[in-house]
Amino acid sequence: MLTIRVEQMAALQRASERTFIDRLSAHVVLRWGVMAGGAARESWISEAVRRARGYRLKSEKDITEFVDLTFEFGREFDLEARHATGAAILRGRQLAAARMRQLRDWAAAVRGSAGKEA
Question: Pseudo-torsion of CA 34, 48, 16, 2, nearest 10°?
Answer without folding.
Answer: 180
